[in-house]
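[scheduler] slot 2 assigned
[scheduler] job type: sequence-to-structure, two independent chains
[scheduler] chain ordering preserved from manifest
[runner] begin chain α
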Amino acid sequence: MAAEETRLSEAFPMKAGAGPNSYAKNSTYQRGVADAAKELLTKAIAENLDTEILLSSNTFHIADLGCSVGPNTFYAVKNILESVQSKYQSKGPNSQIPEFQVFFNDHTTNDFNILFKSLPHNRHYHAAGVPGSFYGRIFPNASVHIVHSSYTNHWLSRVPKDVTDSNSPAWNKGRIHYLKSTDEVVRAYEDQFARDMECFLHVRSQEIVNGGLMVLTIPGRPDGTPHSHAAANVTYQLLGTCLIEMAKKGIVSEDKVDAFNIPIYYMSPKELEAAVEQNGCFSVEGMEILPYVSTLHSVAKTAPLIALHVRAATEGLFKLHFGDAILDELFDLYCKNLVAQHCIFKSTEVFNFFAVLKRKAN
């Protein structure tokens, strides 16, 4: 299964480079979420990392999946490393702190050049880039002690096949996402998420040592709430209306719009728990809602900033399907519509949660 998933997974890299529209310059929102998770991350390592793991190797391996181009990945790694060091030191003044090896993982099309150029000069770890989709195997058996991933698990491995098939009941004509679409489209996205999460947990169960940890920061939606409750889903709905507006003006082809869908799904904590239970190789050691304050109450005031952040994360998708020519006009229109239609966000919220999974003994 892992080999097949690796072969079929599509790549959705963040905006490369260090320019004004780049992910490196427009990911402060994700940094805010990481700040909110820092205390929980420290607590998770202190309470759940087994002493046996600390003593089993002279090199401690940390992996950040979906690292993108920085700087947020370096901040997360620093927090993990300091937490592990504190765990070692708590064992006594004579505890031997090991060397640390950090693996930065993302798709092969990720801008690793910017990532490596931005590496902190005062880092206390050896760094290596590991290209490949995290829906497939990327590390040897039982070789990683802590896996971290933040703001990545909402990305599907691919657009659900049926939503782009005009002969399928799940054809998503006139929309680019599942919000306010048919039940068949929603089920297609749900099924793709279930398959992807099954694969993600399966391959991680092979790579993480017994007793090792996986800590995930996930954008999602509260248990028992409709998909319309997630503010990000409304964002993609609004982007879709922008494309339709451009199609009516003849700027883009309507057929092109019908063939385009965003490969993103916002899970609930219960959906993650169900996937972990079905996998059977991990225990859920903790799951907390992050106390992050959204700026969506003032969408009209922060529209340019929101547009830049959304563009940095999704430009690659639009460029691949529609080309470069429409990008400026699309996101300018999106910014204007954020201001004009900001009321559509009133019944939504930004929901992020933090999950700690522990690898069970074989």
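[runner] end chain α
[runner] begin chain β
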Amino acid sequence: MKQKGLKNENGETKAVEITIYDYFVNHRNIQLHYSTDLPWINVGKRKRPTYIPIELCFLVSLQRYTKALKTLQRVSLVEKSRQKSQERMNALFNVLRTSNYRAEPMLSSCGVSINSNFTQVEGCVLPTPELRVGNGDDFFPRNGKPSRIERWAVANFSARCGPNNIVQSLIRCGEMKGIRIDHPFDVFNEMGQNRRLPPVARVEKMFDIIQSKLSDAPQFLLCLLPDRKNALFGPWKRKNLSEIGIVTQCMAPIKVTDQYPTNLLLKINAKFIRLQL
């Protein structure tokens, strides 16, 4: 609806409500053909809207969208714009191979020539960085070897993820990166009745299950949390690192992409390297 001021016989202005369709057709003399079945576009503000029929609107090219994207839109944009190095190289090579730049008259008149092959440059090996460990001793890492994960298990606090798929992805990614990962002793799933307990009690219940099935303490524990910002993180870390002394890594497997296991292995490998120093 739209308010419009009309004058009566006494010259007084009276506000009446009419439809936006009547306003454009009867007062602006603009014929609308199919706007009654389509949504109208608000080009004003939320509190003071200004509606325009969609058939009277045109898209202007090269216009920037300045408002913040939604979460799903931002994720979709990153996924589509992200390319692996080899994929980007193949795309550029196909452009150079299929585009006949030598026959372009504009480039020839300007004296510009584009080679169809990539330019090769010499690379350099950077020196090993100096590290300071222990009591301030200088350490130069050399002959680096990836860690081996042998005695480990999975503690699953998440009811909606498939831990077996995550374990297989981690082992497969470790083989590609040169990190040998044995199959875990077991996957310990949290009991349903324990999910309503406080975080500290849930951690204690999980360790009761682990200690009842494992005679020795595992070398490494992979913890699957229900979400990223979870109250279990603090008690779990404190139990493993302060009280028992077990290497642990937490993850929230909401969406496991191809890069996720690689980033996870970087953290796990660094923790095992610190134990060896």
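[runner] end chain β
[qc] chain β: Residues 2-56 form one domain.
[scheduler] slot 2 released
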